[in-house]
Amino acid sequence: MAGRTKDLVSVETESSLSKVAAKEVSKLVTLTSPWVAYILVFGIGCAFHVILDSDDPDVVAWTMFLMSAAVLVLTAVTFGQSHARSVWGKTHTTLTTLLAGLWVCAATVNGPTTVVTGRLILIGGVTVALTWNIRTVIRMKGLDQPGAITDPLALLFGQGAERAGMPAIEAKTTKASAHKVEGAVQLEAGRQTADDLSRKVPYVESGIGLPPGSITTALDPDDASMAKVTISDPRVMKRPIPWPGPSRPGASVAEPFRLALWQDLDELRYTIVGHHLQMMGMTGAGKGFGGAWNYLAEFISRVDGAVFAGDITKGEQTLGPLRPALHRFETTPAGVKKMLSELQAQVKPRTDYLASKGLAKWKPGCGLTYWLIWLEEFPDIFDCLTDKEQEAFLSMLKAIRSAGGTIVMSLQRSDYTQMPTLARGQLAKMCFGVENSADASFGLSERQQDAGCRPELWTNAQPGMAYLDAPSIEEGRFAMPMRTFAWGIDAHGQFDDERANEAMRAYSAQWPAAAKKVDETTAALSRLAEAPTAPQQQPVDRDLLLQAVELVVTSQYASPAMLQRKLRIGYEEAKRVMNAMQQGGIVGSLREDGRCEVNVPPGGLPLALAMVLGDPDTGSIDAGQNDEEDVEDVASEYLHTDDPDPGVQADIDDEIPDLEEGDPPLTFAAPAQRMTAEERGAALMKRLQELWDGGARDFSSGDLKPLWETTDMSRSWVQKTLRKLAEANVLGGYDDEAQRYLMPERPELS
């Protein structure tokens, strides 16, 4: 199919007459059951009085002992097995059993209709039966909820599950805290599974009156008729959560990362080693400042990892503040291509090294530095690769996990035109807010979609909200929302972009990549950021400098304050003028009193002015290189190979002769066929029609390889055009499982 669709879950309504009648009969039976029990107890008392009648005192004594023991046993069993909603309900059930048993004992000895026993069964029995009717009516009307909070989960699931069409389930609280309630749900064995419950969750939430996303379900690994549930309040995630600092500074990258808080306010514990990650979300959803920054901030604080990053789309904007902590950061297509090529070439040597150590995969202390390859705006990076380079990248994606590396690919929409299907199947999923449910299907795992995860509810209005399904994530968490930490929160609790950048730059400076000890290969591949240099001073205006020299030499007094006052300039500019005169030797160093010694006597003013003007006989304050460089021996200085044809000698002023008539001495390969956009489209349609006429009803990208081998079409252009054809219903869509495009009809442009 072109895309996976979700079936809407319909809630069964009890509209037929038989169902309505059955429900009313059930209520009637519930109300009459105490009176049936009342009659049964009276009958047992009558029967025992007749059957166990005896004139022997010993027989009567032993009979009463056995009956009393039986009553105590029944009372204890009732107390232990009672499932009433409150302490009062459990007490009510237990006392009813005890009183009924004691009356039967008394009726056995004295008879059921004596003055005492008769009045007890008449008055007491009717009273007890009525108390049961009162409890039943209150429970039916839902009036006992305030008194039923002994088990919060049972309370919440009571009416909600019934209204959602699942009346047979039983919920029991296993753990309750200030922020969440965890529990186990017993489903109807043989008729319901945890998947059924997960599909009904929105209706259960509606029946209870909870905010959307409050209930999270998970499978019980030990019992298919059970499910685990967690109830929390999604509204607690509305405001940004400040970054709390690194969780384990100085530890190994194999230790869990803390990237966010779950909706129940527990910390996310995420182990990154051994798998790759897709980080997807629309613009402004927080995958950069929230996802990338938190992930990388944890990684750079660990001792045995190195980051190789690339972003050819936004350059320095997202990852620039982290540059000091990155072992390599490329922002040009050529730089990223070279980096990926060099990394891919070292995968096999790394696996060979691990094999020599008897290791099937990377582990802390094995001698290799763990690599994190971060590719921001991945589709643009993948598009700039040639077909051969794309194949090499996909090969590295499959092999580098065991070689000690993780690749993170960040993008906005992971459809088949942006992300190779082969790659998408290798990735864990972290999905931030998206525009719609169609986009969400590319960012969520299969089981997240089945569990009803809806990142389209956030869009970019709640930046930092995300779902995560990856190895090391607990079973009950993959469908629970979380919020990543925010950097640069102001006094009002709001995100501030400038504060965030300042905070990240300061944090990255604490963990410089140059200070880490890495293996030789990592060191060779690294391109460490240069130490920041002092900003170049603004040049001093020459006329201003001449005035300052004349003033200082004439008055024999020099200080920045005096220059500021006399020349009417700013203090910082006065200091720059003073520094220029110090460099030229006109004044000495600044003393403690804020003055400088004047080195030129009053009669030396012409010489001092000549120095400022750059007199060749006296030198210059800002003496520099000549305007023309000496280029006579450039070849001997920079050329390190032998001259291939020493007989050819020429000078820059020599005349260039014309070539002789005839064929040119050099020939070149014919250029690739150049085509207009219309010609490309026509060639693509012709190829698709050829495939159809040949009997093909689906095809893969490889079937179109002749197009980009013989023309100037690129693979990425073909994929994007195929997507447009699918949207226009010229093609039947794309089958994700088979990884093939569908052609139910012959492709034709209307």
From TrEMBL:
Residues crossing the lipid bilayer are: 35-53, 59-79
One matching Pfam family: FtsK_gamma
**Residues in domain FtsK gamma?**
538-603
> Do you know which SMART domains this protein is assigned to?
Ftsk_gamma
Its taxonomic path starts at:
Bacteria, Bacillati, Actinomycetota, Actinomycetes, Streptosporangiales
Q: List the InterPro entries.
A: Ftsk_gamma, P-loop_NTPase, WH-like_DNA-bd_sf, WH_DNA-bd_sf
ATP-binding among the record's keywords? no
For whether the record's keyword set contains Transmembrane helix, the answer is: yes
Indicate what this protein is called per its UniProt record: Ftsk gamma domain-containing protein
| Gene source species | Nonomuraea pusilla
Q: Looking at the record's lineage, which domain of life comes first?
A: Bacteria
Keywords, alphabetical = Membrane, Transmembrane, Transmembrane helix
